[in-house]
Design a protein that fits this description.
The protein is of the alpha/beta class. The protein is built from 15 helices and 13 strands. The strands form 3 sheets. Strands 4-5-13-10-11-12 form a 6-stranded mixed sheet, sandwiched between helices. Helix 9 links the parallel strand 10 and strand 11 (about 290-300). Helix 7 packs across helix 9 (about 270-285). The longest helix is centred in the first third of the chain and has 19 residues, at about 130-150. Keywords: Amino-acid biosynthesis, Lyase, Pyridoxal phosphate, Threonine biosynthesis. InterPro entries: Ser/Thr_Dehydratase (IPR050147), Ser/Thr_deHydtase_PyrdxlP-BS (IPR000634), Thr_synthase-like (IPR004450), TrpB-like_PALP (IPR001926), TrpB-like_PALP_sf (IPR036052). Pathway: Amino-acid biosynthesis; L-threonine biosynthesis; L-threonine from L-aspartate: step 5/5. Its cofactor is pyridoxal 5'-phosphate.
């Protein structure tokens, strides 16, 4: 059915989390010109949305799920909560969002000891959650280019893989006046992830070092030149990623009081967006209680965990030097969105108590074991999804999950992007610095049943008989 495009128009402003200054939302800003702080985007007309009660909003968003109006099919199903100054012609939709919530198989739930599900964000167009933010960021760029009449703008991002894939895909779809450049840490991106921006036609530039090094380069470019930075410093991306929270609430009938969400923490943009989304829904009465949020970090890249593991009066923010991690998208030692996390976590705790926001730490071994176990039970979990499952297991062991609570695990990308780590696990070839020793009971490798010479000089029928006999002997099959 066709649904009219919303008539509501908000007024977006950047609010600096450092000094509190505000700037109009119709310009390319990433950090505060006055103090260098990061922004949250806010609709200064948001309170006017309260003229409708929660039931009205729930009904509206439920009706939009049936819409054939292209601009309302993705993250902008929740237009009024996102970037409500865009026109229908500005919105970019590539099939992102509304990814499935898939209950863990019965056997896996029994093994873990509680009920839970994966939200498969790897089923977005570029196979990661980053498409949510890019749909919003590129829609904003289309609006900006149209209203400013710009004839060219360079989009640039630093990436561990998923960001570059999403940015290049959306830039290729929009086309002129946008051009895409991505900066990658040399040798720190899987071949599958590298193939994506190359296939989309982006200019791919590599630098030695890690993600944080590439990010510093991008920050200089964004500060001194007219380029569109597409990392999570970009506040429009954070808005798009809020859709994860809206979809989760909608899937569970807008009742999230007993949910525990496990979210990998890399650059801290995703956990920021998810908390922001739930807080907006609570303020409008769309939900009546907040869920619990568990951020998860590997001990190889855990600055946020270290901050929150300290007593409240002794917390000091300090970046860390990362070590190699299988959760490559989370291998970030100085997440730019941490000030956003700190502010929104305070609001969460103020609203719902200390248990509403926690960070748990996991090992690289636990991440890989969890990913393999999940996929052995019929899921498509990436290493970050394995990190979420490992976080749930550790939270259970620590007694942090109560009876009757249901866990939703963010699997941020598709498993196939990280098949190289699976192969290293199965073949026991992890470099020592990863600190992963495979459980060989979980290993799975192909077996050659016959030598190549078995095919030489024989008919197809004869070879088929030999092949069938080899299968029978290997599987110990019985005749009918």
């Amino acid at each position: 059915m066709s649904v009219d495009f919303p008539s509501y128009r908000g007024q977006m402003e950047y609010r600096c989390l450092g000094c509190g200054r505000r700037y109009p939302g119709d310009s390319l800003l990433y950090t505060c010109p006055d103090c260098g702080g990061v922004f949250l985007l806010q609709d200064v007309r948001f309170d006017s949305l309260k003229e409708h009660d929660g039931a009205w909003w729930r009904d509206l968003f439920d009706k939009r799920l049936m819409s054939r109006t292209t601009a309302l099919r993705g993250v902008f199903t929740y237009y009024e909560l996102m970037a409500p100054m865009l026109e229908e012609e500005d919105i970019v939709y590539l099939g992102e969002a509304h990814t499935p919530v898939v209950a863990a198989s019965g056997a896996l739930q029994d093994k873990v000891g509680c009920a839970f599900a994966f939200k498969n964000d790897g089923q977005n167009p570029s196979a990661s959650f980053k498409d949510r933010g890019m749909a919003c960021a590129f829609s904003y760029l289309k609006w900006l280019c149209r209203t400013r009449q710009w004839d060219e703008i360079l989009t640039v991002c630093a990436s561990t893989g998923d960001t570059s894939a999403a940015a290049a895909l959306y830039a290729a779809y929009v086309g002129k006046p946008l051009k895409s450049v991505v900066l990658l840490p040399h040798g720190k991106v899987t071949p599958q992830q590298l193939a994506q921006p190359l296939g989309s036609g982006a200019t791919v530039l590599e630098l030695p070092g890690v993600f944080d090094d590439c990010m510093k380069v991008v920050e200089i470019l964004a500060e001194k030149y007219r380029v569109a930075l597409l990392n999570s410093k970009n506040s429009w991306r954070i808005l798009g990623q809020e859709s994860f929270a809206y979809e989760t609430a909608q899937w569970f009938g807008w009742d999230v009081a007993n949910l525990c969400l496990f979210v990998p923490v890399g650059n801290s943009g995703n956990i920021t967006a998810i908390m922001s989304g739930f807080l907006k829904m609570k303020e409008l009465g769309i939900i009546t209680a907040l869920p619990r949020i568990f951020g998860v970090q590997s001990e190889h890249a855990d600055p946020v965990y270290r901050y929150y593991s300290a007593p409240r009066d002794k917390r000091v923010w300090e970046p860390v030097t990362v070590r190699p991690s299988v959760a490559q998208a989370a291998m970030i030692g100085n997440p730019v969105s941490f000030p956003r996390v700190r502010e929104l976590a305070e609001r969460f705790v103020s609203e719902a108590g200390e248990r509403s926001f926690q960070i748990v730490q996991v090992t690289e071994q636990q991440i890989m074991d969890a990913m393999i176990q999940a996929n052995r039970h019929g899921h498509i979990v990436c290493t970050q999804g394995g990190e979420s499952l490992a976080g749930l297991l550790n939270a259970r062991a620590l007694g942090l999950i109560g009876e009757g609570e249901y866990a939703v695990l963010d699997s941020t990308a598709h498993q196939i992007k990280f098949s190289g780590f699976q192969n290293m696990y199965f073949s026991n070839t992890f470099p020592p610095e990863y600190e992963v020793t495979p459980d060989m009971n979980l290993a799975n490798r192909p077996e050659l049943l016959l030598p190549a010479s078995a095919r030489e000089g024989v008919s197809v029928a004869e070879f088929a008989r030999k092949g069938a006999q080899a299968v029978v002997e290997r599987l110990n099959l019985s005749s009918k």
